[in-house]
Amino acid sequence: MKETSFNQERFKRYLRKIGSGEQTSRGMTREESADALELILNGDPSPAQIGAFMIAHRIRRPEPQELAGMVDTYLKLGPKLYSENNLHPPICFGMPFDGRKKTSPIYPLTTLLLLDASQPVILQGAGRLPVKYGVTTEELFKGLGLCLGGMDIQKVQDGFSEHGLALIYQPDHFPLADSLINYREEIGKRPPIASMELIWSAHQGEHILISGFVHTPTEDRHIKTLRLLDEQNFIMVNGLEGGIDIPTSRISNLKFMKNQILNDVKINPREYSMNCKDLEFDDIATWRTNSFKALQGEGPLYKALVWNAGIYLWFAGAVQNISIGMKKAEKAIQSGSAKKKLNQLIAWRNK
Fold this sequence. Notes:
Elements: H1 3-18, H2 30-41, H3 47-60, H4 64-77, E1 81-82, E2 91-94, H5 107-116, E3 121-125, H6 137-143, H7 153-163, E4 165-169, H8 170-173, H9 175-178, H10 181-187, H11 192-196, E5 203-204, E6 208-212, H12 216-228, E7 234-237, E8 252-258, E9 261-267, H13 284-294, H14 302-315, H15 322-334, H16 337-349
Parallel strand pairs: 1-5, 2-3, 2-6, 3-4, 6-7
Antiparallel strand pairs: 7-8, 8-9
Helix pairs in contact: 1-3, 2-4, 4-12, 5-14, 5-16, 14-15
């Protein structure tokens, strides 16, 4: 029997496990889930098997140990980033890879303010992906004049070591994962891999993992998964469109793990005079205009930027509370140092 046929038979066992119906289907072990995803990424199962697996897994929802196994495989086969000894533990933002469509992203600007405060940031994403085909991290930074695509992983590592910013861009750095885009399109739904992407980071070592979500069951499942993965510091954010942008229109309930203790935090923008409607997203050109206005201390994104930066400076331990974090953010904007940080990154990239 050829090796590919053997691997297809092996994969069939996993497919039977999760696709046998409501009464008899059962979860895979962590090791089985890791093996199943590795087979998929290597292209061993047939297209019919992969499609059936993704649909069956989505219907029954992946269990925490299955998600942990999938992360294990991404850690094994995917790109890797390392921190220099003098860098603070980076913030790793976990957001839906299929982007944003409804609300204006704030996180690229928040990232600049965190970098200005010497807080490293790691982002990850892909090109336009189904099912949402929303605007991507790479496109947004390009709109600001900073091209973060088209670099090999060593160039990304060099930039991270020098400036504290990295974008793990799937087409450049993880082509095995990028090969699954057609399946996302053909099944018409986010596969379980899309959920796993929110809690995976290419960074090796100590970091703060911040993951967005929409539904409470997802939050609970991800917390259990991150415990299995022995993540020491993480934050779960019910952010805009399942991302990490904290809304100004409503109270946000967040959970964060620090020193192996899980805490609940309720943050009300009204208590900080930061409540306002979340800005809709029109197009990149409009977003670019509003972003540069925000970096000048004005425009419809400014308040949301100060709000988000203040909270994340607090979570990173750079300030004692949110109010001080917002003041620090305002100072960085008014002094022009946040805009200067962007220009430094652009100059580095244009070398």
